[in-house]
Structures are given as structure tokens and as C-alpha cells.
Design brief:
Largest sheet: 6 strands, mixed, barrel
Organism: Flavobacterium cyanobacteriorum
Keywords: Ribonucleoprotein, Ribosomal protein, RNA-binding, rRNA-binding
Strand order of the largest sheet: 1-3-2-6-5-4
Number of strands: 13
CATH class of the largest domain: Mainly Beta
GO biological process, one term: translation
CATH superfamily of the largest domain: Ribosomal Protein L25, Chain P
Function: This is one of the proteins that binds to the 5S RNA in the ribosome where it forms part of the central protuberance.
Protein name: Large ribosomal subunit protein bL25
Strand content: 35-45%
Structural class: alpha+beta
């Protein structure tokens, strides 16, 4: 999985006044959990742009002044209810020998015969819950729709996994090809035409 580096400064004071001052200065108060003790730090709000405002998922290298570095993942984020500015972020430290659970985007690949035949592709799951060692976390889970005929569903059990586990229930539908309204109308009209008596034929 791709990583983003966040440069920050460790906080000595974590009270309300210090937190307010950090926000007024355009910095986001953050806490890193998962180590021997929590690490409090701040970073410029614009530093989180490529981490927060994207459909992709990344791990994070927290680079603090003084040479301290931590590998982590975003655990929780709080936004201002009116301005949508970032108020606070929690991170969780990664350990190379410990598995981590993350929501990873689904990437559709292949061409569905059902779609070519007039069906409509629906992506039921945009993200799936994945568990793996940090080094094995995928950037996305590939969902190949090459065998989906019209009306078929692609279940999570049909997805390929490489050194990671998908934790969603086995009956989870990732994608499906629905019959379009146009195709359904055409089928209904064809059925009516087949039932109708031929012109000029005596009853």
C-alpha cells in the first residue's frame, strides 16, 4: 500500500487552550496510539489533503521534528459541523509483525458480457474490510466482472486475495449486472409478440 508522509511537531501541552491555539494557527491536533504511550502532535491542515480528501487509502509516515518517525494508519477523524475543517485526527501505529484491519477500495476489472448485452453494472461494495500485515496491505481489492452475465452477482468469495484476508461475510455481493429497463421492455414486447396470433390467421 502506498504511503503518505505527514510532517508534524510534538505537543508538550495538550490542554484546551493549547489545542485552540494550534487550530487558530492552521494546525490539526493529532494523537498516535498503539505504541508504549500516546504521542501528541500537530501538523498543518493542508498536509492531510491527500490523505483525507481522496477515495484511495494510504498508510502514513508521521515525521516529527527531532528525527522521530512512526508508521501508522488513520483511525478516526473529526470535522467541524459547520465549516468542515479538520478538528482532530487519531492515528494507530503499525507494527510489521502485527496484522491490521482496514477498509480498502474495490477496483472493477474486466468486461461483463451482461453489460455488453444491455445490462447495468451496479457496484454494491465500494470498500471491503481487509486484514493483513502492514507490508501486505493492498491498494485495492480487484473485482473481475468478466464472467458476469445479465442478472448475475459477484460474491466476495470469488475475489482473489494475495497475502490478505477479506473479513466481510461470505454472502456479501460486491457487484451485479441488472437487467436494464430498455432490455426488460424489449423482452416484454417480444413475449407479447410471441403470444399474439398471426395476422390473417383464422381463430
Amino acid at each position: 500500500m502506498k504511503s503518505i508522509t505527514i510532517k508534524g511537531s510534538e505537543r508538550e501541552s495538550v490542554g484546551k487552550a493549547a489545542t485552540r491555539a494550534a487550530r487558530n494557527a492552521g494546525r490539526v491536533p493529532c494523537v498516535l496510539y498503539g505504541g508504549d504511550q500516546p504521542v501528541h502532535f500537530t501538523a498543518e491542515e493542508k498536509a492531510f489533503k491527500n490523505l483525507v480528501y481522496t477515495p484511495n487509502v494510504h498508510t502514513v509516515v508521521i515525521d516529527l521534528e527531532g528525527g522521530k518517525q512512526f508508521n501508522a494508519v488513520l483511525q478516526d477523524i473529526q470535522f467541524h459541523p459547520v465549516t468542515d475543517n479538520i478538528l482532530h485526527i487519531d492515528f494507530y501505529q503499525l507494527h510489521q509483525d502485527k496484522e491490521i484491519t482496514m477498509d480498502v477500495p474495490v477496483k472493477i476489472t474486466g468486461t461483463s458480457p451482461g453489460v455488453l448485452g444491455g445490462g447495468v453494472l451496479r457496484l454494491n461494495q465500494r470498500k471491503l474490510k481487509v486484514r493483513a500485515l502492514p507490508a501486505n496491505l493492498p491498494d485495492f481489492v480487484e473485482a473481475n466482472i468478466s464472467e458476469l452475465e445479465m442478472g448475475n452477482k459477484l460474491y466476495v468469495t470469488k475475489l482473489e486475495t494475495n497475502n490478505f484476508k477479506i473479513l466481510n461475510p461470505e454472502n456479501t455481493v460486491v457487484a451485479q449486472v441488472r437487467i436494464s429497463r430498455a432490455a426488460m421492455k424489449a423482452a416484454q414486447e417480444a413475449a407479447k409478440a410471441a403470444k399474439a396470433p398471426a395476422k390473417g390467421k383464422k381463430k
